[in-house]
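Annex B. Sample input.
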Amino acid sequence: MTTEPVPRYADRLDLGEGPRSVDGRVVLVDIPTGRLLAVPDDPAAPLETVLRLDVPLGAVAPVAGRPGTWIAAADTGICLLTPDGVPTWLARPEDGSPERMRMNDGTADPHGRFWAGSMAQDAVVGASSLYRVDPDGTVTRAVTGLTVPNGPAFTADGTLMYLADSTKGVIRRYPVDPATGHLGPPQLFATFTEGLPDGMTVDMEGALWVALWGTGAVHRYRADGSRSHLLRLPAVQPAGVCLHGDVLYVTTARAGLADPGPYDGAVFTVRTAVPGTPAAAYRASPTAV
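Annex B, continued. Sample output.
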């Protein structure tokens, strides 16, 4: 019962990304302004600021058992954020890189690890990586040679990971060892000749929703790679998607547009036939920070 996407809330974001269903609400980030935002009950109201950093904020996941605490991909590394917004850095692996780097999209997997990608601010080919954060806080470079990684998104059992390399126009699917988080050899899942695959989420049927930057579209793919739905939005740059029950949230961006339209940078919602599940949490071990 998918319908047409509807713009909500008063804000127009520079680079709205990483929407997540957390504790009964949807949160998202505006990357360049360093803001973590929550959607209000009133769809005509402005978004609510949860916290703000003085560095770019790429993505967050809740930390299990620590209300109000987040693990975040921010600036050049991974940190923990408490409600005061002061970061405790676990690692800053992109410090000292030959290119100007920042962290980008990220999410927790069903087994409690956090994954996040970096990107060169000039989109230098092959300069970026995907990092895995284990429960003890160890940060490991899991995939190298990427350009602009987005996602990842995981199946409900955590044994498959979808990862987009946006500027290359591809989504790959990796087997994941649930015990260790180690990735197996990737398989090509989808390729795009128009638009760039950006944020992703998996629904309860195992289908993958993908925001297509530059096309004003969101696609849904079955697990076999066939497309089942195409949604059109009156915004050029869809950047992130999440399912909050049976409502799909789509974030967009106005950054880089010479003449943004009235809905560029807006947050959209649309009801779907297949719901999703709440965002997974990062499960820090007692020895982690």
